[in-house]
Design goal:
Layout lengths: L1 H19 L3 E5 L3 E3 L4 E7 L4 E4 L6 E16 L2 E14 L3 E5 L3 E4 L2 E4 L3 E6 L11 H8 E7 L10 E9 L4 E9 L6 E6 L7 E5 L2 E15 L3 E5 L3 E13 L5 E11 L3 E5 L16 E9 L3 E2 L5 E11 L15 E3 L3 E9 L2 E14 L3 E5 L3 E6 L4 E6 L3 E5 L51 H29 L1 H22 L4 H19 L9 H10 L4 H16 L7 H21 L2
Parallel strand pairs: 2-10, 22-30
Antiparallel strand pairs: 1-3, 3-6, 4-8, 5-6, 7-10, 8-9, 11-12, 12-16, 13-18, 14-16, 15-16, 17-20, 18-19, 21-23, 23-26, 24-26, 25-26, 27-30, 28-29
Keywords: Membrane, Signal, Transmembrane, Transmembrane helix
Protein name: BatD family protein
InterPro entries: BatD
Length: 590
């Protein structure tokens, strides 16, 4: 009997110890999910507590929750208690994220969960359920990426148009772009769409309404199979159910669902090696070459411009223009590059040019050799070469360059001239010198010596005066607090000024400046600064009623501005009014 009694006592003691242990855990429904999936996170506690604080789900959108559930059971005399806080989350973007710690207070002790790591990937295919509203939505809404070419050449333009098809039975009332495609290995340019226009069309043989959401022009920068990542949207919509109201109309239910355009793969062909020119720099399209000189007849030291330009359709921003080669007698400056290129659905069109400023130094005729430019023509699928005409620049007036290749007097270089001897050719060498004796000087007993010696003694009275002023300043506790308040107010007003135009940041900084100034100026240390208390404290300090009214009005503006639209002009007025009011309180307070 005693043995059974001891065993029972031990069991009760072990049960009490087990029940006393607090378990607070965070559990995720999955550690890896697509951006079009939802994640469930449960925070479970085996003992009731207070002040539950969830983590900051900064990289997720909380679509539902928190939902609370309590489980309380007795099994073989042992009580089991579990309380669960559940959240349903939708990821905002791809990446590896950490869901932080949740906290709860039990018996005056704070407990925390462990962080959870979650990986969000691109959109994935989800299983289909005909009875699920999400499945009904997926069958009646389609986000499509239409690619103009799936087998282009390197640097050939192709277009991706994203369309959203919606069945007439579905009501869409909001959407949000949660994942934009990253065009790796492409040069990309988005085409601006002015206003979204609902159009009627067909998809898979059925009538749909559709919107063109985005148009993007791509130029592949490498060969082989390249992936175009999907566009993903979080769409809020209403879908019909099997239930009807009393009038026989179908009842609608709200659904939030992520739709993806799906991956697209294109096969980029390399440009042919046969017939490729040596000076080919990657131009693909249809182009014309222009080489123009602003002047062909001028004087020496006058400047003129040589413009090398290419215009047409193709990858204008993705290749280099040919360089000009000029005689050494012409001074050439670095070219000024200009682009006048528009990007349309068919690709780039326009012109690019390099303008060289040239200054001739000597009289003569100078040829600008012809320039060659080659490109790959997509229509004929062959390389073409363009060549400019030679341009001759005639410099009429100026010095003659005897060494210039344009001079006809080449025989002058062969004429030998007699060297005339000069009797004074070594006159620069001095044969007589005038030396001046230098007397030795000593630093001792000079004016500089006595000045440096007496300077420390002269600085002692100045140091005493500065020290006394510092002591008296430190003893002025009240004055120091006022100065500290001014510095603090200026600091926060400075932060508010920097945030002009950003409504929330501006009014937070402005409110901090007002409260911290008031605390230091009125010698109070409290967080309870109600409007009634501010009014009472300022009246005790003999501040004018109008100044008190202005101060409280600014505080009210700071509170209301977070919930109402405010323009930058109103922010500027509030800033100036706050600075003026702080200055008036500083002068009037006793």
């Amino acid at each position: 009997m005693k043995l059974i009694k001891y065993i029972s006592i031990l069991l009760i003691f072990a049960t009490s110890i087990t029940s006393a242990q607090v378990k607070f855990e965070a559990k995720a429904s999955k550690s890896k999910l697509g951006i079009n999936e939802r994640l469930r996170v449960d925070f479970e506690i085996n003992k009731d507590g207070d002040n539950f604080n969830p983590p900051n789900f900064s990289n997720f959108t909380v679509t539902a929750g928190p939902h609370q559930s309590i489980s309380n059971s007795w099994i073989n005399g042992v009580r089991t208690y579990k309380k669960t806080y559940s959240y349903f989350l939708t990821p905002k973007k791809r990446g590896n994220f950490t869901i932080g710690q949740a906290t709860i207070t039990i018996d005056n002790q704070v407990y925390k969960t462990l962080p959870i790591k979650v990986e969000v990937t691109a959109a994935v295919d989800k299983p289909k359920d005909p009875n699920d509203p999400n499945y009904i939505a997926s069958e009646n809404i389609h986000l499509v990426a239409e690619v103009s070419k799936t087998n282009p050449y390197l640097n050939e333009a192709l277009t991706v148009v994203y369309k959203l098809y919606v069945s007439p039975t579905i009501e869409v009332y909001n959407w949000n772009e949660i994942d934009s495609p990253r065009y790796n290995d492409f040069w990309s340019q988005s085409i601006n769409i002015k206003g979204l226009k609902v159009q009627n069309g067909t998809y898979n043989g059925q009538d749909y309404r559709y919107l063109v959401l985005r148009k993007t022009v791509l130029y592949p920068q490498k060969t082989g199979k390249l992936n175009i990542e999907p566009l993903s949207l979080d769409i809020a919509l209403r879908v019909p159910t099997n239930r009807r109201d009393i009038f026989g109309s179908l009842l609608m239910t709200k659904v939030n669902k992520v739709f993806s355009a799906g991956n697209k793969t294109i096969n980029v062909k390399p440009l042919p090696e046969a017939g490729k020119p040596i000076d080919f720099t990657g131009a693909v399209g249809n182009f014309k070459l222009n080489v123009i000189a602003s002047k062909k007849v001028l004087d020496a030291s006058e400047s003129f411009q040589v413009k090398v330009g290419v215009n047409g359709d193709g990858n204008l921003k993705l290749f280099k223009l040919p360089k000009i080669s000029l005689p050494s007698s012409l001074e050439v400056y670095e070219p000024e590059h200009k682009e006048d290129v528009k990007t349309r659905l068919s690709g780039m069109t326009g012109s690019i040019s390099d303008s060289y400023t040239v200054v001739p130094q000597y009289k003569g005729k100078y040829p600008i050799p012809s320039i060659s430019f080659s490109y790959f023509d997509l229509k004929t699928k062959s390389y073409k070469r363009l060549t400019s005409d030679e341009i001759v620049i005639d410099v009429l007036n100026g010095p003659t360059n005897n060494n210039d290749e344009t001079s006809n007097n080449t025989n002058l270089n062969n004429v030998k001239q007699r060297v005339v001897a000069n009797n004074d050719q070594f006159a620069f060498i001095k044969t007589r010198t005038d030396f001046i004796s230098i007397k030795p000087t000593y630093f001792f007993k000079t004016n500089l010596f006595w000045s440096l010696l007496l300077l420390p003694f002269l600085a002692i009275p100045l140091a005493i005066i500065v020290r006394n002023k510092k002591v008296s300043r430190n003893a002025d506790v009240y004055g120091n607090r006022i100065r500290k308040a001014d510095k603090l107010a200026k600091k926060y007003l400075s932060n508010a000024k920097k945030s002009l135009g950003k409504k929330e940041a501006f009014y937070i900084a402005l409110e901090k400046a007002l409260h911290n100034y008031l605390k230091a100026r009125l010698h109070i240390e409290t967080n309870d600064l109600s409007k009634e208390k501010i009014n009472s404290l300022l009246k005790d300090k003999q501040v004018d009623d109008s100044t008190i009214k202005d101060f409280i009005a600014i505080v009210e503006n700071c509170e209301l501005a977070r919930y109402t639209p405010i323009d930058i002009v109103t922010m500027q007025e509030d800033y100036e009014k706050a600075a003026k009011t702080i200055s008036l309180i500083d002068k009037q307070a006793r």
